[in-house]
Amino acid sequence: MRILEFKESADTIEYAIGDVHGYAENLACALRMCATDAANNGMKARIHLLGDYVDRGPDSKGVIEMLMEGPSDDHVEWLPLRGNHDHVFAAVCRDPRHELAREWWEHGGQQTMMSYGWDPLTHGMPSDVAGWVPKAHSDFLASLPLGHLVGNRFYVHAGIRPGRALIDQSDRDLMWIRNEFLKHKGDLGMVVVHGHSPEAVNPQDHGNRIAMDGGCFYTGNLAIAAFDPGVPTPRFMIAKAMDFDPTYRRETEPLPAP
């Protein structure tokens, strides 16, 4: 399904996490912050990840592996969405001659490939990305839904086209739209929680939409919004790599040497 619908629950805090772009340590920190916040409030956590897990940052592979592994906390649910970078990366893995392959390569694809062991000094430009990337990784990204509807709140990567019913929104708009959506000041029919358009001042509540892309790849800030049951306005948090707890990554992994 492109768009999944979830029921609001009085015992669950809904969280949103903005664009990760290969910053695995920030993501691990953000996930832990959400889990801890919910536990401290005696609640469950449902975490909507707004996409763009790959490109630009140093550890796209680690981000995908983390999301595929899923949470270890029983009171936490992770719900990743597909962003445009994830969509294109998965498409290039399937077809290295994809029409957007060069654009992907020039907008973070090289950093993604380096996380899979590709070395620009020794390997040259890869002719077959799939030779470096496990099929399970690209299949995972390609399988992700494009939106989550919870009550009157819609979680999506880029946004929606104003004036168009949710069922009629195109995949491209859900993953790519900018100006028509960002400049719209009127009622959208729901509150749209989105990433895709980075600003250092994000997260921001614009009333009809909540902007969640804090530009982690250049600010180091991974934005988090917490929506408490029955409360219309979110609480905002920021996850930084310096706050990363390495014990959260994998319970079976040894800690890094000091």
Structural class label? alpha/beta
Can you tell me the CATH superfamily?
A: Metallo-dependent phosphatases
Please, what is the average pLDDT?
91
Percentage of residues assigned to helices? 25-40%
The DSSP helix count reads 8
pLDDT < 50 stretches: 244-258
Alpha-carbon Rg, integer: 18 Å
In N-to-C order, the SSE pattern is: EEHEHEHHHEEHHEEEHEE
Distance between the termini: 45 Å
Strand order of the largest sheet: 1-5-6-7-9-8
Give the percentage of residues in beta strands. 15-25%
What is the approximate shape? globular
CATH architecture grouping: 4-Layer Sandwich
Largest sheet, strands/sense/barrel = 6 strands, mixed
Do you know the CATH topology? Purple Acid Phosphatase, chain A, domain 2
Number of strands: 11
Number of domains: 1
What is the highest CATH level, the class?
A: Alpha Beta
Question: Can I get a quick summary?
Answer:
The protein is of the alpha/beta class.
Descriptive tags:
five-stranded mixed sheet, 8 helices, single chain, Purple Acid Phosphatase, chain A, domain 2, six-stranded mixed sheet, disordered C terminus, alpha/beta, 258 residues, globular, 11 strands
What report would you give on this structure?
It is a single chain. The chain has 258 residues and is α/β, with parallel strands linked by helices. The chain has one domain: 4-Layer Sandwich (Purple Acid Phosphatase, chain A, domain 2). 29% of the residues lie in helices and 19% in strands. It is built from 8 helices and 11 strands. The protein has helices at residues 24-40, 60-69, 84-94, 101-115, 135-143, 171-176, 179-182, 216-219, and strands spanning 3-6, 12-17, 44-49, 76-80, 147-150, 153-156, 191-194, 204-205, 209-211, 222-227, 235-239. A 6-stranded mixed β-sheet has the order 1-5-6-7-9-8, with no helix packed on it. A 5-stranded mixed β-sheet has the order 4-3-2-10-11, with helices on one face. Strand 5 (147-150) and strand 6 (153-156) form a beta hairpin. Helix 3 (84-94) crosses helix 5. The longest helix is centred in the N-terminal third of the chain and has 17 residues, at 24-40. It starts with a strand and ends in a 19-residue tail after the last strand.
